[in-house]
Every structure is written in structure tokens, then in C-alpha cells.
Structures
1.
Amino acid sequence: MALTKAEMAEVLFLELGLNKREAKELVDQFFEEIRCALEQGDNVKLSGFGNFVLRDKNERPGRNPKTGEEIPISARRVVTFRPGQKLKARVEAYAGSESGTAGD
Amino acid sequence: MSELRQDHAVTKSELIDNIARKQPQLAYKDVELAVKTIIEQMTQALASGRRIEIRGFGSFSLHFRPARMGRNPKTGEPVPLPAKYVPHFKPGKELRRRVDEAWQKERAAREERGTARASLD
């Protein structure tokens, strides 16, 4: 099963002794702070985990895959994630057993 | 000017400071430990092949990379590289919308300033 905010808050409650409301607020706040930083145009660097990096894309030609009709893809700003060395190393070691949920 | 902030990045410790300021009832140490615990849980989940799903933020999953032949950059000798998994992030709807809307507004404002200056010339 996927890791969710509820499970993260539960761990903060069990391991750090925050009360349930505080734990939930903290987890919410963590992701909200990252969103706010990116919204303001700042990248976010979480050492050991990875960097959230903004990229500005120019308009480019696109196509409706169903109809084949040509429609330009408008200029936009997108968020990308570049995993850090430590995260990459730990994920690489994952053998990929059949019980895993990895994959595209 | 504000356009030149391009390279600024928020670090983990700044994130902790910002959260601590908004949660004054919590000790700074607790906020610091909480953020580190959240990041460790996320790393641990991915390292054991689990996905992470945060509504409004995005999801993390693993992508498979098949084995391939690489090359030793010094000797040019071919080296077999084993199959592996790499972490992948897909931003959620709310994150995508907020980031793009803020940027579109900023561009529109810059455009307006540009035309205002041009009409003065």
C-alpha cells in the first residue's frame, strides 16, 4: 500500500509524541510549505532526498492523440524532481520483488 | 529585482524555520525532528518499493531501468550495468495549477511593464 499523509502523521504521533492534531497539521504544513516555495518561484532542496526544480517551457507544437489535430502546447512552468545521491543509492538497492508496487 | 531570484532555493533548514514560525506552540526541536522523520519515512517507503501518494502535491513511484552496457569513462572499456529502479515524481493537479498560475500572472505583469515602458519611449 502507498505511503500517505495519514500514515506519516501516525508515525509522528507514535514516535515523537505529538498529539494527533499536531501531527496531522505538521504533515499538511510540510507539503504546503514546499508548494508555497515553488509557487513563489523558488526551487526546494531537501538534502539526502532530492530537489524540486522549476522549469519554464516554451510553447511547442502538439497534437491531439485521438483526432490527430494540431494544437499548440502553451508555454508553462512545471515542477520536476531530481532525486539526491542518497535516495538514488537506497532505491537502487531495492531488488524489485514481485510484492513491490514499483513500475510505471 | 524580483526577476533575478531565479536561482534561489529553499533548503530543508529554511523549511523547518518556516514551519516552526507558523507552529509556535511546538518546540523548534520537535518541528526539526518531525520534518526529518517525514523525509526518512518517504525515503524508506521508496527504498522498499512502495509508492507515496500525497493528494494535491503529487506521487512518487519507482521506474525500472533495464540492464545495459556502459563504458568506463577513463579506459573506454565496456562495463555491464545491472538493471535498477530510479525514483520518479509526478506533480499533482493542485501543485501544477498553483505553480503555473503564479508564473502566468508574473509573465502578464512583466509584459504590461514592458509595453508601458515602450509607450513612454
Note: Chain B touches chain A through 64 residues (CB under 8 Å).
2.
Amino acid sequence: MNKLNGMNKSGRVACRRGWKGGGKPLFLTCSLVMLICLCAPFVNAQVQEEEVPSDDPVIEARLANLSKELRCLQCQNQTLADSPAGLAADLRREIRVQMKAGKSDQEIIAFLTQRYGDFILYKPRVTYTTYLLWFGPFILLLGGLYLLFHFIKQRRDSFVEKPLSADERRRAEELLASIPGKETT
Amino acid sequence: MLRYLIPLVLFLVLAVFLAIGLTRDPHELKSVLINKPGPAFRLPQLKAADKMISNEDMRGKVWLLNVWASWCVACREEHPWLIKYAESGVVPIYGLNYKDRREDALAWLEDLGDPYTVSAVDLDGRVAIDYGVYGAPETYVIDQSGMIRLKHVGPITPDVWSKEILPVVQELNRQGK
């Protein structure tokens, strides 16, 4: 039942990324990676049990939802749902087992954070260490709004309405009168 | 003057934060298990599959739990040092053979030497999940009462040994006497 992978799997992912960029050096890199992939079966590999989806669609739906909110700790910018890493597969298997045993999502999240810390949560908890993360952008927004209003007000105040002098008024009337088809008062 | 100074100060603050960010390794996560009891395990031994090993067997002494595998490249890097430190007899090193094929693991110890007092076999990685393992090699320092006192992620180098692990082990041994 045990399937060997690990090394060749990550290699394949690297290739796919390379193709998008194109270019000759990338092509060479990819060829090299492919070669390494081909050699992979001869290298010691991680023992990885094949991932068996649960026959209960409710559990699979819950897992799909929950694993989108959890981080794979091996490749940190991927969720547990997306990650091809062995650890992610192990954690998904563990989540299935716990769901089957009747554990709630909250209990499973507690189980994982007790072992891996809050870092496993893609959505950080609101604690005193994350206040700046959660509320910082709003503080910046408020600060920006304050500055915006301040500058607009300052600019508006700099316009001073001054009545026209008699000389200026006469010139204005002359200019207006020079526009054809317009009556002046 | 101020209108030129403010952007400069903002830039410097940002630059300092980013510079600090550059020096930190995002892969090094602080373990939440520090100063908590090491999770219980009872696993078959690598060299004697019919015998079991439990964390309770090590109660009363300071020991290291080293997560390793024959497929793990960085494990190869730390292996000669582990052998050296095991020979020094300062602290017993127990292995957790992580998701490895038994024959690969035994061949590895045969070829490179065996620094481990005993290696436990964690074939499906379930015990590793309890310990919060996310990448081999990882090393835990566990005290006389079974508490985790230190976790190091990545290979043990002489620097890591003398600056991180050895001081903690010596301090725990001193306290225990």
C-alpha cells in the first residue's frame, strides 16, 4: 500500500512553475529537474501512505472547508488543501480520522494549534500580538482620511474672496461685452 | 524642513523593520510545546522490531529526541556530529525514525554509524504530529520529568550544539543533581 514519493513530487511542481516563465535557462533547469525526478526512484524516499478520501461526503466537504484555512508548515505559502507535501497529507488524514470520531472543527483546530501553534492558522487569531496586524490598516486609513481632510481644508482656506475694484470691474465688463452674441448688464 | 524630514524618518523606520525581517528565518517556528510535557509515545524499536520503546522509559534522565530519516538530506549533514556528541556521553540521543523504510534506515545506520541509544519507528508520522514536527531533522531536549525544554529545527552543527543544546543539557543535569 505504501507509495513512494516526496522528492519526485516536489520536483514536478517546480517544473510546472518554470514552464510559465519560459526562456532557455529555465528550460535547462526544468530538464535537469526532470532528470532528477527520473532518478528519484533510486534515491531513498519518504514512506507516504496513499491518501484515501473518506466515503462520507460530509467529512470530505468539511475537510475541504477546514483545510483551506490551515497552513501547510512545510511549504508555508500553501494551504493544507493545496499542498502536495507529505506532512500536509498526514495532517489531512489525521483530520479525517478526528472528524470520523465526531470531533468538531473547533476541537480539531485546537488539536493542531496545541502542536503547531497559531502559525498553522491562515487567519490569525485576534490577540494582543496581532492587534497591529488586524487594526493597523484601519488606523492607517483613518490617518490618511484625517490628512486628506486637513489638506483640503487648508487649501480651501487659502482662497480669499476679494471684491473687484472699480477698474477691474470695468475691464471685466469690457471683456464680456467683446464676446459676440452676449448681452451684458 | 519638516516636510522633507517626515518622509525620511518614515523611510528609515520601514528600512529598519525590513532589515530585521531579512535576518529572520521564516521556516524557524517557535515550538508551542516548550516547557510542556513531551507527548506520550509507544513505538516499535528500529533494530529490534519486536521490542517497544516509550517516552516513559527515559523518565529520570535528560535525553535528546532526534527526528531523522534516511531520505532526509540535512540529516546526513548532522549525522557525523551526532555520532561525535553521542560518543562524548554528555546526553543520550534517542532517534525518531520518521516515515522511513526499515531497510533504508538500517542500511543508513550500518553505513554511517549509529549515534542513537535506541531509534523508535514512526512509520506513519503520527507521533511526529504530536511533537509538532514539520521538517526533519528536528531535535528536542527533554528533561528528567519528561518536559520539553528546547527544540531545534534543522541540522545540529557544532555552533548549535555548543550555543543552544549543550548549555540547556548541562543546566538541566546540574538542577537534577
Note: The first helix of chain B runs from residue 2 to 23.
